Amino acid sequence: MLSTSEENYLKALYKIAQVKGNPVSTNDLADELSTSAASVTDMIKKLFEKKLVDYQRYQGAVLTSEGGRLATELVRRHRLWECFLVEKLGYGWDEVHDLAEQLEHIKSVDLVDRLEEYLQFPRFDPHGDPIPDRHGKFTIRSQQLLCNLSQGDRAEVVGVALHDSQFLRFLGEMHLEIGCVLEVLEVFEYDSSMRIHIVPDTKTLISSILSKNIYVKKYS
Amino acid sequence: MLSTSEENYLKALYKIAQVKGNPVSTNDLADELSTSAASVTDMIKKLFEKKLVDYQRYQGAVLTSEGGRLATELVRRHRLWECFLVEKLGYGWDEVHDLAEQLEHIKSVDLVDRLEEYLQFPRFDPHGDPIPDRHGKFTIRSQQLLCNLSQGDRAEVVGVALHDSQFLRFLGEMHLEIGCVLEVLEVFEYDSSMRIHIVPDTKTLISSILSKNIYVKKYS
DNA sequence: AATTATATTTAGACTAGCCTAAATATTTAT
DNA sequence: ATAAATATTTAGGCTAGTCTAAATATAATT
Ligand SMILES: [Mn+2]
Ligand SMILES: [Mn+2]
Ligand SMILES: [Mn+2]
Ligand SMILES: [Mn+2]
Question: Residue B138 domain-assigned?
Fold first, then answer.
């Protein structure tokens, strides 16, 4: 049985590998987990003993297939709990991360499977991230960053690249939420800002900080 | 902020005090928490430092009013999570204790209040135990043990005195569940067993081990 | 009242998970 | 190729929570 701390390391390894590739460096892990590099080295050695990562001194760590399976299970739990908190308890999408961070560590063989059924097998969480199924498989969706659209393109908002609550709250204020349909009215090359039409009735200017962190699915 | 372990000690203190009264002895706590008396002494000293228990060497421990408030809050969380697991996720009443034992420690100012609202403010948990409200108040119900009824008495099952899963599963098999209406057909003085009629269509003999651990509300 | 039994506390040790500071390996720049 | 900068590991230490064994206090028995 894994401790909460071990589980958090697996999840961090998984997340960093997705963004920066393998092997994952000690310092990147220390940053992600807000801990010291020395602590990371200790824990990586422990995960190596348990055969959840491959590791050689000074060469970084890579999840083994068992480590990857466990990390995916954690992601599944995290995202299903987020769905529950938003769908059933009425939390905002900017409020659920820290709670899910705790709930994902509840030990049970079937709790999350029952939760998934109760939620009617959602495939994406409140931030538009895909939810792995019981076997670790998740739906892949064609998507691109809003900043890569051109004038005249129409698209639907399907996800976000940042998850901090300030960013999410700001998107909420702008009425930019998952499922929104929008059209690019104009792109200003100078600062990469965009004028967009959020269907049906909002027209607004958004900075590139926003457009670089919103995933959309372009209508063909 | 309290650790999971500190919270479990507060809950144990509360539970033992209800059954055996104050002060609560070191050994009773060690039994309840399946730990050593030495560990209990250490923790009691820590709770004393935090002003959550009154304590004098060799004289046992008593929850302070703040300690009692926190213990009641824990009981509230435990029972509301049990309701959720049974009502929403379809668990049996014999399966939810250990999960609630973990879920009760999730840290959040309003999670359990939202859960309570979502469950429509249940006043009793799946075992018939009362759920404290946000202010720590809970509904008191007139109840007595089934073994104290006499021939001809009619009553409704409202709770159980034991919570281990074997006992609960056995009650389930006997079709004795919260809300059942029953009538005492005959009492056998020799071994205190009873013949009862479980409305509408079951007539059965139950041992005193059962009748001593089932709470009923007698119809007047 | 003295003795014995039981309950409780203290002493000392262990693990997990974290830390800082120092040592060492690797990478980058000159 | 050497030196400087950066990354990583090691060494040693801290706290929370647990343990066993030994010491001490309280309660029960004779
Ligand atoms: Mn977590
Ligand atoms: Mn999410
Ligand atoms: Mn607990
Ligand atoms: Mn209960």
Answer: no
Per-residue model confidence (pLDDT) at position B51:
98
The domain of A47 spans: 4-63
Number of domains in chain B: 2
CB atoms A118 and B88 under 8 Å: yes
Tell me whether A88 touches chain B (CB under 8 Å).
yes
How many degrees, rounded to 5, is the angle at CA B171 between CA B168 and CA B177? 95
Residue A36, token pair as written in the block: 């010291």
Residue A148 is given by DSSP the state G
pLDDT given at position A96: 98
Q: Which of A88, A103, A107 sits opposite B118 (nearest CB)?
A: A88
CB A218, CB A144: distance < 8 Å:
yes
What type of residue is B92? Answer: G
Contacts of A139 (CB under 8 A, 6+ apart): A123, A124, A130
The per-type count for chain A, helices as H runs and strands as E runs, is: 8, 8
Q: Are A91 and B114 within 8 A, CB to CB?
A: yes
What residues flank ion ligand 4 with Cβ within 5 A? Answer: B 82, 125, 127, 129
* pLDDT score of B220 more than 90: no
Beta bridge partners of A144: A216
The domain that holds A44 is classified in CATH as 1.10.10.10
d(CA B79, CA B133): 11
How far B106 CA lies from chain A's nearest CA (Å)?
7
Query: Of B32, B63, B94, which residue is a domain's last?
Result: B63
- The residue whose two tokens read 């079951």 is B202
Q: What is the pTM of this model?
A: 0.96
Place of tokens 């009760």: B104
Distance CA A100, CA B138 (A): 29
CATH number for the domain spanning A190: value is: 2.30.30.90
